[in-house]
């Protein structure tokens, strides 16, 4: 099948044995596996393949290119064969923070810089942006290899290359090593989770946009399953995967912001819930939010998970009405950013504004407000009417023994198929029950 959707993994870049011939054979074998598997796609997967962009395609109204990021030709050890670019504001104070930005599949550092809006806030608040870029030599679809063990382990492959970029930023640009952050879209979002797990002492916080929990995929086949329908594991199992990435590390753990579109048909929204389960458990927190609120004119639903010390350790932002991509809000207002002239940057809410705020880079405190938390059950309930198949695919239900069960409440929804339809009420976020007339 063609590698067209932005998160689809491509054949492995290189096995850990054997030289050029074995690399070629391995890549061809993986390509055959994916091609023969195309006929086994579910109807939902076929539908999203039909609307996915051709690799490299852009909308007709492409934005004018921003200033090109500065390429760094040498930054030390580079076992993952990545390229480093930086956006340096005109005035960069000593000890400035650094944000590593990871593009999605088929994208580039320039494309991500042009559209994500991160440079707007780097210039406004004085931090360095490091854009890591992969190539088709690493992955046929220019995805970061978030599902290959040789690239996701501490001290190896792409993860080690990105860690070296952060170290180089400190020596070459004077950034503060205690103020390193990372964010990314899709495959870049999944690699963000990798870096937070493999190098928790390096990154103070991360923001995963339309990504996947750490430890979900270990090869091409499992990567597709992680994307959709997603993997349903216990918080303890997810958190153990993170702890195993750096055995013996006792914290502190990075803070994590999760962003996901409610209508994402490429990386199913259940991944946002599984990421929440993973990182709340790592921080020793439960999965019921401490407070809930809405952001922006589109009422993005935010759930926050707060430590005993009063700091938000994990937050989940579910963006209504959008599919797979980075939410942006073109314009010049204080909470606007980005451009939508290319695929997978979606007019909605400026996620980079809120991510910058979550990282504490906007000059305001990252501590919670003094107002008492909102009791989550008092927030307006969201309602979803769909088949049991779609509820499971979207992460609102799980399936066992041919039946579907509402996530959170565990209510039996009936047979797991496309014929049985239920209306589910979500309140608090992540907890679903069968609606009994209280939904609009």
Quickly describe the structure.
Helix content is 28%, strand content 20%.
Your description of this structure?
The protein is an alpha/beta fold and 440 residues long. It has 12 helices and 18 strands. The strands form 4 sheets. It has a 10-stranded mixed β-sheet with strand order 1-2-4-3-5-6-7-10-9-8, with helices on both faces. Strands 13-17-18 form a 3-stranded antiparallel β-sheet. α9 (235-245) crosses α10. The chain is globular, with a radius of gyration of 21 Å. It starts with 18 loop residues before the first helix and ends in a 6-residue tail after the last strand. 50% of the residues are buried. Mean pLDDT is 83; it is low at 1-6, 11-65 and 366-379.
């Amino acid at each position: 099948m063609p590698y067209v959707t932005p998160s689809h993994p491509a054949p492995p870049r290189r096995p850990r044995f054997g030289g050029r011939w074995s690399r070629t054979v391995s890549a061809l074998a993986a390509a055959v596996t994916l091609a023969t598997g195309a006929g086994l796609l579910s109807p939902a997967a076929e539908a999203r393949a039909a609307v996915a962009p051709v690799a490299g395609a852009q909308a007709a109204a492409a934005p004018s290119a921003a200033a090109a990021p500065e390429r760094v030709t040498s930054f030390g050890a580079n076992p993952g064969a990545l390229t480093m670019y930086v956006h340096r504001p005109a005035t960069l104070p000593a000890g400035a923070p650094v944000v590593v930005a990871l593009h999605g599949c088929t994208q580039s550092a320039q494309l991500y810089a042009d559209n994500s809006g991160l440079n707007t806030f780097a210039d406004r608040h004085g931090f360095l942006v490091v854009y890591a870029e992969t190539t088709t030599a690493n992955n046929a679809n220019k995805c970061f290899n978030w599902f290959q063990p040789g690239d996701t382990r501490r001290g190896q492959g792409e993860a080690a290359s990105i860690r070296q970029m952060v170290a180089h930023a400190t020596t070459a640009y004077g950034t503060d090593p205690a103020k390193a952050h990372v964010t990314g879209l899709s495959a870049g979002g999944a690699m963000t989770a990798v870096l937070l797990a493999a190098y928790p002492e390096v990154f103070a916080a991360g923001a995963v946009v339309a990504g996947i929990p750490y430890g979900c995929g270990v090869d091409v086949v499992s990567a597709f399953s992680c994307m959709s329908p997603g993997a349903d594991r216990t918080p303890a199992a997810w958190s153990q995967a993170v702890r195993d990435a750096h055995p013996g590390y006792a914290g502190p753990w990075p803070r994590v912001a999760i962003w996901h579109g409610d209508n994402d048909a490429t990386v199913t929204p259940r991944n946002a819930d599984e990421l929440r389960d993973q990182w709340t458990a790592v921080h020793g927190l439960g999965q019921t939010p401490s407070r809930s609120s809405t952001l922006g004119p589109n009422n993005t639903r935010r759930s926050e998970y707060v430590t005993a010390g009063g700091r938000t350790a994990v937050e989940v932002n579910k963006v209504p009405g959008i599919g797979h991509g980075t939410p942006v809000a073109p314009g010049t207002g204080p909470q606007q950013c980005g451009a939508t002239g290319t695929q997978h940057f979606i007019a909605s809410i400026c996620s980079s504004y809120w991510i910058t705020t979550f990282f504490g880079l906007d000059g305001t405190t990252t501590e919670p407000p003094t107002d008492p938390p909102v009791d989550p059950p008092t927030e307006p309930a969201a309602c979803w009417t769909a088949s049991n198949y779609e509820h499971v695919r979207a992460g609102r239900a799980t399936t066992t023994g041919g039946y579907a069960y509402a996530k959170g409440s565990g209510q039996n929804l009936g047979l797991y198929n496309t014929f049985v339809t239920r209306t589910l009420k979500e309140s608090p976020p992540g907890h679903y029950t069968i609606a009994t007339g209280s939904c609009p």
